[in-house]
Amino acid sequence: MIAIFEDMLETSMEVFMDDFLVFGDSFDTCLVNLEQMPVQCKQAHVVLNWEKCHFMVTEGIVLRHKVSGAGLEVDKEKINVITKLPPPTNVKDVRIFLGHAKFYLLFIKDFSKISRPMTKLLEKDTVFDFNKECIKPFESLKEKLLHAPIMVSPDWSQMLELMCDASNFAVGAMLGQREGKYFRPIHFANKTLNNAQQNYMVTKKELLAVVFSFDKF
């Protein structure tokens, strides 16, 4: 797919495996870009499923994310499915839930810190006990997904703000910008510390969070 639309990539099209998105900064520009797409499909003998095609829209679901002029959002239908999941009864259920939640990782601040009681159940030779310590983060992650913020695109003419923090077993970062008195998030990121890093002094963990933040963004 990338080879077919190589001359359109990034300037007027984005491709992910067998899905693609044609875009433009105005209706007329988008229409011009869209006219080129079926020509190249025909030349490459690519057949489109018209039931899955959407034309000239201002927002839509792309790779389980809602994309619009406002920014990037979670897919509410997918989130509703996740929030209806019952508490896990075994390790497999924990993996399934965390897998769903991690797909929207960039929307959840302090994911590693919140999910720690659940991820501990995945460690080798750990007795499975989904107790109150696990129920709390389980419900907390659901709540955060239900009220996930809209991630805005960066305005390169304005200052960026990078906030970072560290706990005993994770580091996290938040990139965003100020719009008046409001802070608009662009991306959340976090990382679980390994055994050696968990033994660092507090100051070293904080510095590790700074290094992680700059590496990430």
From TrEMBL:
Task: Provide this UniProt record's keywords sorted from A to Z.
Answer: Multifunctional enzyme, Nucleotidyltransferase, RNA-directed DNA polymerase, Transferase
Transferase found in the keyword field: yes
Name the InterPro entries on file. DNA/RNA_pol_sf, Retrovirus_Pol_polyprotein, Rev_trsase/Diguanyl_cyclase, RT_RNaseH_2
Gene Ontology MF terms: RNA-directed DNA polymerase activity
Where's the Reverse transcriptase/retrotransposon-derived protein RNase H-like domain? Answer: 130-217
Q: Where does the signal peptide begin and end?
A: none
Q: Does the keyword Acetylation apply?
A: no
Specify the protein name: Reverse transcriptase domain-containing protein
Recorded source organism is Tanacetum cinerariifolium
